[in-house]
Design brief:
The complex is a heterodimer of chains A (131) and B (242). Chain A is mainly α and 131 residues long. Chain A contains four helices and no strands. Chain A is elongated. Chain B is of the alpha+beta class. The chains are: A mainly alpha (131), B alpha+beta (242).
Chain lengths: 131, 242
């Protein structure tokens, strides 16, 4: 029952943060950050099994491995960006958090560039045949 | 035909299922739009794959090439931050180089000063003074000390000033005594001079120096720079007449 552990950890961390915040806001922030980090690392192992299922699906249906790689990269970027931005946002730096998210979006779009280029090349290749 | 069609449909279904899965996995809504764009493109690619294959042959290879190209492109753009170790290594190198430069400069100035002193105070012509430094560790720092000094006097004929003709006789006369002095210095110093037993003339174009002169030079250097006389070597070029 990992969910009980995680929720319990969250509750304890929350109470501690409320107690500490009055005296030392810095420690409250650190506590929040480390709790987040712990839960993140705790759950990354679980995501692993989901990704295995995805890989299995891809292998069985015979879609090219490059598709799966791209998709997994997108998921990874999304998770890391979300995590980092959340911690920064907890510390009250909204602007930096939005910059991190922006960077994540740009990197995801970069993934699309090779796909777009192939499609565009095909469309351009189609045009003379059509006219 | 049917087999090909079923393959194609299977591909499309698999990609769409993958897309649905990914949408579930994505952590927040902000990323969803961008992820959806890329996944939509992938689905489009799968649906268009028969046309693509017809027109472009193996488009998957092309796609793979493009993606690896982009992957390799990224590290090149990265700003390379030197690590602390790199900086320290560089600092050490620079330090060493600086020390070496300083040592060379020090050698040169010492040589010039010694030559000047010998020429001025003893009225002797000096061809060259060669100082070699030794690095000694004192506490944390390396400090240079004078390891040996090699004074080269010009050949007597060519030499102007005080060292004139009469010295020729001197050399022959005193030869037996002068050996004693020079053998000691030679053992500590360079290879060139090889004085044998009672001979005053060395083999490789060097002659024994007048002992009084060498003594004077030694005392002068010892006085001025605190060099032990054992570390001072004096040699003289053999004159053409000898």
């Amino acid at each position: 029952m990992e969910i009980i552990q995680i929720v319990g950890l969250g509750l304890i961390a929350t109470i501690l943060i409320i107690v500490v915040r009055e005296q030392k806001p810095l420690f409250a922030f650190l506590l929040a950050a480390f709790t987040g980090l712990f839960i993140f690392i705790f759950l990354i192992g679980k995501i692993d099994s989901v990704i295995k299922v995805l890989e299995d699906l891809a292998n069985r249906s015979g879609i090219p491995s490059i598709y799966l790689k791209t998709i997994l990269k997108i998921i990874g970027i999304a998770y890391i960006v979300e995590f980092g931005a959340q911690i920064v946002r907890d510390a009250g730096q909204e602007s930096i958090a939005s910059r991190i998210e922006f960077a994540g979006k740009v990197l995801i779009l970069v993934m699309a560039v090779p796909i777009i280029s192939v499609i565009v090349e095909t469309v351009i290749g189609l045009l003379p045949a059509g006219s | 035909m049917i087999a090909w069609l079923s393959d194609w449909l299977k591909d499309i279904i698999a990609v769409i299922m993958l897309a649905a899965f990914v949408e579930l996995l994505l952590p927040n809504k902000a990323m969803l739009r961008y992820a959806r764009l890329v996944i939509g493109l992938l689905i489009l690619l799968t649906i268009m794959s028969p046309i693509l294959r017809l027109l472009q042959g193996d488009f998957n290879a092309k796609l793979k090439e493009g993606i690896t190209h982009w992957d390799q492109l990224e590290p090149q753009h990265e700003v390379k931050m030197p690590t602390l170790i790199d900086i320290q290594k560089k600092a050490d190198e620079l330090n060493k180089q600086q020390n070496n430069d300083a040592a060379v400069l020090m050698e040169q100035t010492l040589e010039a000063a010694m030559k000047d002193a010998v020429v001025k105070q003893m009225k002797l012509a000096v061809e060259a003074v060669d100082v070699s430094l030794n690095w000694e560790k004192q506490g944390q720092k390396l400090t240079p000390t004078i390891a040996s000094v090699l004074v080269t006097l010009p050949a007597e004929k060519a030499g102007p000033a005080g060292t004139a003709e009469p010295n020729e006789e001197d050399v022959k006369e005193v030869s037996a005594i002068s050996v004693d002095v020079d053998v000691q210095t030679e053992t500590g110093g360079t290879d060139k001079q090889q004085a044998e037993a009672g001979k005053s003339e060395a083999s490789d174009g060097w002659v024994q120096v007048n002992p009084t002169e060498s003594k004077e030079i030694r005392s002068l250097l010892a006085e001025g720079w605190g060099i032990r006389s054992a570390n001072v070597q004096i040699r003289q070029r053999a004159g053409n007449s000898d």
